[in-house]
Amino acid sequence: MTSSSDKTITDFALVQLIPNMLTVAAICAGLSAIRFGVQGNYVLAVQLIVAACVLDFFDGRVARMLNSDSKMGAELDSLADFLNFGVAPPLIIYFWALQDMRGSAWIAVLLYSVCCAMRLARFNVSNKTEPDEVDPQGAFFVGVPSPAAGMLVLLPMSVSFAFTDTPLLPDLIICLNMVLVGYLMISRVPTWSLKSVRVARRNVKFALVAFAVIGAAVLTYAWITLVILCVGYIGMVLWSLLGNWSAKRH
Fold this sequence. Notes:
- With 250 residues, this protein is mainly alpha-helical.
- It contains 9 helices and 2 strands; from the N terminus they run H-H-H-H-E-H-H-H-E-H-H.
- A two-stranded antiparallel ribbon has the order 1-2.
- The longest helix has 28 residues, at 71-98.
- It is globular, with a radius of gyration of 20 Å.
């Protein structure tokens, strides 16, 4: 006889594990990026961080599509974000250009990573206890999200890969960029979210063509395209800052 204390075992369809598989793949990409950064293969290291961004973009959406989102998946995603965008990018750029500064550069790395951890912790707590802190329509994030922050920290490397093989900015500027991006993660500045984008039925064909153009640009001129996307995102952040400042004045 089966004891009443026995627990019911629920089987999961393999397809329901796809979101967590994507998150685990992103973790592997982030760890491998650190490895290749230590070895001096910086181009591949940055490419792996970009791959982690793409995987991070899709894992949550796939989970919602398959109705397989879970608390464990959410925690796993948060841990992956810290590794992939809070630890790997500052370490890679430190190995690439900042080892001559030693202590000063390492302080910038630590500040950025701590800011990323604080941002993720705030987001997790806000989702559970302070729903008003999160835009219910998903139109804005509070502060710069960690994937975007990781790409902004790596922007000096992307610029270098696009135009030359040597750093184009002084080490101090690279450190200040890292600290500033870290601050923007924990700031209250509303930053635009792709979740809010809606495409009218009559414009779907244009959206698909635009996606094809961006995809072709990434495949043909990867680094220049990445730089343009980062600069465009910086423009949106500045627009949000100006809008927030103007609203406070009035």
